[in-house]
Sequence to fold (562 residues):
Amino acid sequence: MGTSDFNGQGRDLLESCQFNKGSCFPQEERQAFKLLGLLPPNFQTLEEQVQRAYEQYSSRESDIAKNTFMASMKQQNEVLYYKLLETHLKEMLSIIYTPTEGEAIQNYSRLFRKPEGCFLNIKEQDKIEECLSNFESSDEIDYIVVTDGEEILGIGDQGVGAILISVAKLALTTICAGIHPSRQLPVVLDCGTDNETLLKDNLYLGLRQPRVRGEEYDKFVERFVTIAKQKFPKAYIHFEDFGLHNAKRILDMFRSQIPCFNDDIQGTGCVTLAALMAALHVSKVKLDDVRVVIYGSGSAGIGIAAQIADTIENEARKPKVEARKQIWCLDKPGLLVKSLGDQLTPAQVPFARDDDEWSGEEPRDLLAVVKKVQPHVLIGISTKPKAFTEEIIREMAKHVETPIVFPLSNPTRLHEACPEDINRWTDGKALMATGSPFPPVELNGKKYEIAECNNSTCFPGIGLGAVLSRTRVLSDKMLVAAVKALTMRSPALQDPKEPLLPDVQDAREISVDIAKAIIKTAVEEGHAEEVGIPTEDQELDEWVRIQMWEPKYRPLVRPQQE
Fold:
């Protein structure tokens, strides 16, 4: 279990979220660290603390009040925070992450109490190194989540409040994959904001100016990445919620140089692809035959398209250009076609169809595309509520035996269709996965759980594998390995009536499988820099697990003076 070194005493110890145990300090530590008289006399267990904390949590009347309670607990006692979260993960995930974290982010400057994370602003680029030097020493940061706050959780530009999405993502890497909480760094790149509500708010804590773009922005991002890798050479960098025109461009800029990852592109793509692979298994549709329509071609939509194309290329042995022809992408102008020219982002261009596939008078809206393409799979990532109408779903169901429908937009109010409706419109034939939690659907008197395409079952394990292997880069082949590992956990592989994806409650075990897949592939490709990685599967499993942090109190000892 190990011990923890702490050089302070008394109130300093109680105010340290990393070392504070509250009522769990044993007598010998109360004596040794001058805590006598600072705590009630009764000694409690961590489980008793969790019971009390859960009662306090449950007494909060609103979700945002519960979110604030959890944030406050995290700043007081990390072990208790993570133990409480571990004990009630499924219930609390929507409180500490989407959708409630979105509300906390929107109100960041008004709920602000104590800062957490690293705040870098575009007007002080010459101080990035100084700012990063205020955190842990160079070999003590494994995982960095960085955002510029332009596209947050379906609520858009949130400026400096986006630091909370970096904080939330790192909390999930700890609880789902055992990344040590003191070896993480949440970062926000404050480039200003185009959110008029924030610009007019006298309490707003970020740069009160329009968002900076172009060359100055690019220099800011590049300078941050360069200095962060110099300062923290072991760190894996996770890009989060960058805008449509920057997300893939920035990922492509760095992914051949450093171990980095964009959850909106790659994480969403991986978890969606795992659900799709399970659905294809159940529906007995071959990967090299599948026809996929994606409604919503932003960072996440194109990320999903890219992951599907990569998998078709690798698994069906097709050239990438042929693999992409099995995917039809739509956005605000309708079906993406080459004649849209400058209206297409660089990431969208490879998925634009030839215009001669569609006559000039032929509509290119979603219904028209579904009628013509007759897709096996319909994926929504548009944030356009109720876009999957009864007419569209029934049209799809006319042509395929088992419609595969994934309304993935979140939060819940933005979903393209309700699973209950999809189930009814397809007479219970549809295989579904959603982007937010939904209640079970009923068919012939039986209830069936709906799979949630929750990135929390995917990105923590990918990050754990990258950190433990110290991979030089995160390759496409490594992501395909992650998808296969997640797919193998699908309950639907054993019973077609079960969900397409495993429950988030099992995220820690899933992360072990994904981490092992990442590590093995990193070794095979020659990217792993860590020495002594076990080659035998059981040994590798133990090697991964022993390095995963768990929320337990460690005995405190004073570091020996040299």
